[in-house]
Amino acid sequence: MAWNWELRDWPDFVRDRQKLAARETRFLEQAGVLIGTSRHISEEDRIELSISVMSLEAIDTSEIEGETLDRASVQSSIQRALGLKAARTSARPAESGIAEMMVDLLQTTGEPLSDEMLHRWHRKMLGGRTDLKNLGGYREHEEPMQIISGASYAPKVHYEAPPSSSVPGHMAAFITWFNKTAPTGEAPLLPIERSGLAHLWF
After folding, report:
1. Using CB atoms within 10 A of its CB, is residue 12 exposed (0-12), middle (13-18) or buried (19+)?
2. d(CA 145, CA 154)
3. CA-based angle 99:140:160, to the nearest 5?
C-alpha cells in the first residue's frame, strides 16, 4: 500500500466545497460576533481573555506531545512573555518555552510562514526536552518514522512518514502552499478548508 505522500497526485487534494459551505459561513459569523464583542470590553479584559485562550492552547498542544503542564505556571509565563506583571511562580522550561512560543505565534500572525519560524517554535516548545536531538531543525535520522501498534515482534504499521532526506522538500512545498492560501496570499482559502488541508499534509 502506498502512503499518501507516495501517491502520484500528492498533494493535490480533492474535496467538496459545497459540503463545507454551511460550516464556513457559521464560522465566519461566529468570528464576527467574537470580534464585535471584543470591541465592547476593556483592554484589560481583552488581554486576560487572550492569555486564557493561549494558556488552554499551550496545555492542549503539550498534551499531544505527552507533556502535562501546570496551568498557573503557563499563564504567568505568558504574562511575562507579554511584558506584563505576573505572579511569581516556578515555571519549568517546558512551560516557559511554550508560553514564549504562543506569544510569538500571536505577534507573527500576519507574517509569512518560514523554515526559520517553524524551527524557532520547535526550540521554544521542546526546549526543556533532553531526549530529543536536532531541536530547531528537521529530522535527519535514517530510521523510518512510523506510527505502530502491537507487539515488538509483530508490529502493525499504521503510517510511515516520508524519509528524513525528503522532509526539507516536503516542508518547502507545504510552506509555499500555506503562504499562497493565506488570507492575503495569491489563492486564499476559507478558514475551515485551509486548516483541514493543512492537517492532511501531515
Report:
1. exposed
2. 17
3. 90
d(CA 89, CA 160): 41
Q: Residue 183: helix, strand or coil by DSSP?
A: coil
C-alpha span between 192 and 27 (Å, rounded): 8
Alpha-carbon distance of 193 to 75, in angstroms, equals 31
* Share in percent of the chain as helix, strand, coil (round to 5): 55, 5, 40
pLDDT tens per residue, range 92-127: 888 889 999 999 999 999 999 999 999 999 988 877
C-alpha cell recorded at residue 60: 492542549
The helix/strand/coil state of 56 is: helix
Distance CA 145, CA 202 (A): 12
Whole-prediction pTM value?
0.86
d(CA 24, CA 70): 34
Query: Cα separations (Å) of 27 from 21, 190, 191, 193?
Result: 10, 10, 8, 11
H/E element holding 176?
helix 167-180
pLDDT value of position 32: 95
CA–CA gap between residue 161 and residue 6 (Å, rounded): 10
**Terminal C-alpha separation, the chain:** 18
CB–CB of 128/92 below 8 Å?
yes
Per residue in 164-190, pLDDT (tens digit) is 999 999 999 999 999 999 999 999 999
Task: Give the whole-number percent of the chain exceeding pLDDT 90.
Answer: 70
